[in-house]
Amino acid sequence: MDKAVTTHKLTKKFGDFVATDEITFEVAQGEIFGFLGANGAGKTTAMRMLCGLLTPTSGEATVAGYDVYTQPEQIKQRIGYMSQRFSLYEDLTVRDNIRFYGGIYGLSRAELKTKSASIIRELGLDSVADALVESLPLGWKQRLAFSVALIHDPKVVFLDEPTGGVDPITRRQFWDKIYEAAHNGTTIFVTTHYMDEAEYCDRVSIMVDGRIKALDTPTELKRTYGVDSMDGVFQILARGTSGK
Amino acid sequence: MKRFLAFVKKEFFHILRDRRTLLILFGMPLAMVLLFGFALTNEIKNAKIAVLDLDHGPHSRQITDRLLSSGYFQLIQNLNASRDIEPAFRRGKVKLVVVFPPNFSQDFARNDTEAQVQLLADASEQNTAISLTNYATNIIQNYKSEQAPPGTVAPMQIDVQPRMVFNPELRGAFVFVPGVMAMVLLLVSALMTSVTIAREKEMGTMEVLMVSPLSQLQILFGKVLPYLLLSFINGCVIIALGVFLLGIPLNGSLLLLLAETLLFTFLSLSLGLLISTIADTQLVAMFASLLVLLMPTIFLSGFIFPIESMPRFLQFVSNIIPAKYFIEIVKGIMIKGIGLDLLWKPTLLLLGMSAFLMAVSLRNLKPRLNQ
């Protein structure tokens, strides 16, 4: 069982609307798995089912080897989650945020101490460790949110459009952090609609109207569709037009 | 448990870091108690009156003296003719005009039933007008019975001697403080909890909490616990202010009073939770708390307007206002000094309401957060 995430015909319906339609895929341990799609294509719904925020309508799914229906508690302890809103408490300090998230994952006092020291040092936040998060620039908040999502050394970390509203340079720095985490064996499951980011992933799935239309490495996808960028692939699949 | 404590600690940080929250939390009860205790009172002292004395006899003068020495009235104008009455009221200063008709003293001396005093009150403030005419009538009646020659009893006159039990001085604070307590506890508990939960939803942090190993119950109780504690402290502060500053007696058991306060706080928190299951933004939570909770509490709990004089429909509605029972309990314990043997009914009602509200909000919450 060395698959980080598996799904089989996973489906979620909201009334008559089918948000994700029988999606089936596997994500290997330590892989950076990109989950692409236009807004409303169903990628956030799929991710929420895997995180335990939504109950699937039908189909099967496992995360870190545990079943999403019957073992949500085991899953929760082994996953990290970062939403597009960075999910830090703005009215608490950097240190408070780290300690809080460490605390709710059950880290011991000693672990909390070493973890918060190492996060603050790695991100170069020494000077603002006791400043309120609201005073930090967006890029710093983003990296802090990511570090906090990894505080309990999760097997899989889910990133829901983690780079929204951030400039390209900061985005690049953020991806360096992602590579680092993947290198340490954490599986990264990331949704995005920035096509340049898709190039950074090991494998990419492209969702259109609730279904997975393509799933492969970026190189392979570009060759299959005969284009030279992920943007081109996306244009063909999502909009039915041929991009350049 | 450790996770839960980490969560509770974070809640305390939120509260203690935010000056505005702290100010509302501890400034509001103080301001309200002082306001209701001292400024807003229905006792009347030194009401401004005018006298139109067309009699100029000994009795009219003595009655006027009696009125003025009572402490309720203050003479600011002597009128000369009845046409002066209206302008005096119009200028707005005079609240009551006492008119002695010509030959009043002669009629009075003959013990004539024709002897009449006219009281005109400014009824644009109806409560004041009623109180003032009552005070004045009493004083005049007293004077009359004192002047009657011994042995002669006026025909068919019954001597009514009212005695105000539990609150002989008719102090307004006795009525207001329990009401303020209910209002503050409700407001702080319900408003604050519903707003902080809505804030987590708004900020997107609720999602992260839901993904974390914290259970739904831990999140909810983690939210409720700090406010339960702070509101309870608040309740104690109000009781202390009432007793030591406003001189309200504490005739019953303090322990029972505190237990009931805790119960009512818990009920308010359940209401806050219920609101937070419906409200997704802080603004909605705030309006819901103010409109749905505060308004009915002020108007229908008997805090300001007596329930007995409400239309039948509103009287019926007032039965579901929790503050009504809490006020009844607080008054019972503090002023009447009665115990649980007489207060079990409202207590049981509050308990039932809390259990019901808690159950409904817990049931409501899961699907709401699941969307």
Automatic annotation (TrEMBL), chain A:
Domain ABC transporter stretches: 5-234
Gene Ontology terms, MF aspect: ATP binding; ATP hydrolysis activity
InterPro entries: AAA+_ATPase, ABC_transporter-like_ATP-bd, P-loop_NTPase
Spans traversing the lipid bilayer: none
Top-level lineage group: Bacteria
Key words of the record: ATP-binding, Nucleotide-binding
Name of the molecule in the record: ABC transporter domain-containing protein
UniProtKB/TrEMBL annotation, chain B:
Gene3D superfamilies linked: abc type-2 transporter like domain (3.40.1710.10)
Domain of life assignment: Bacteria
The UniProt record lists the keyword ATP-binding: no
Membrane topology term: Multi-pass membrane protein
Locations listed in the record: Cell membrane
Transmembrane among keywords: yes
Alphabetized UniProt keyword annotations: Cell membrane, Membrane, Transmembrane, Transmembrane helix, Transport
Family according to the record: Belongs to the ABC-2 integral membrane protein family.
Protein name: Transport permease protein
Lineage: Bacteria, Pseudomonadati, Bacteroidota, Cytophagia, Cytophagales
